[in-house]
């Protein structure tokens, strides 16, 4: 399954308000399996059990929606096109291609097209974030050492 990043769900203002209330009410139960009653027009239809992991994911989705952010789900094993990967990293496609050619990010070829596993993209992003934080820490340390007032 290839994720359709264009299928992201953008919440309306009413959706955001409802998501905020729902996420707050669910938060205390994030480590528990939950029995959820499904009802329609006030009539109980059935009860289902949600695993704790799904409850945590649901809280995360609701929190993002409460902040007005569009949300989509991408399976960890999904393969992304170079454009999808660039969009997720918030970089240009040519810059992403450069990362691939420099072997900074793993990929495979399907015919003439490059595909990047979502889990590899996450791994690259995590490494990049750590390197960026280290560089910023070093800049702050250097500025303090030189009495630059930061």
Could you explain the architecture of this structure?
The chain folds into 2 domains: 8-66, no CATH class; 79-145, Multidrug-efflux Transporter Regulator, Chain: A, Domain 2 (Orthogonal Bundle), CATH 1.10.1660. It contains 5 helices and 5 strands. It has helices at 13-26, 52-66, 82-89, 93-101, 118-145; strands at 34-40, 43-50, 79-80, 108-110, 113-117. It has a 3-stranded antiparallel sheet with strand order 3-5-4. It has a two-stranded antiparallel sheet with strand order 1-2. Helix 1 (13-26) packs antiparallel against helix 2 (52-66) and helix 3 packs across helix 4. The mean pLDDT is 90.
Instruction: Give the overall form.
Output: extended
How much is the radius of gyration in Å?
Answer: 21 Å
Number of E-state strands: 5
User: Any guess at the CATH architecture of the largest domain?
Assistant: Orthogonal Bundle
Distance between the termini: 48 Å
Q: Give the strand order of the largest sheet, numbering strands 1, 2, ... along the chain.
A: 3-5-4
Secondary-structure element order, N to C: HEEHEHHEEH
CATH overall fold name of the largest domain: Multidrug-efflux Transporter Regulator, Chain: A, Domain 2
- How is the biggest beta sheet arranged? 3 strands, antiparallel
Structural class: alpha+beta
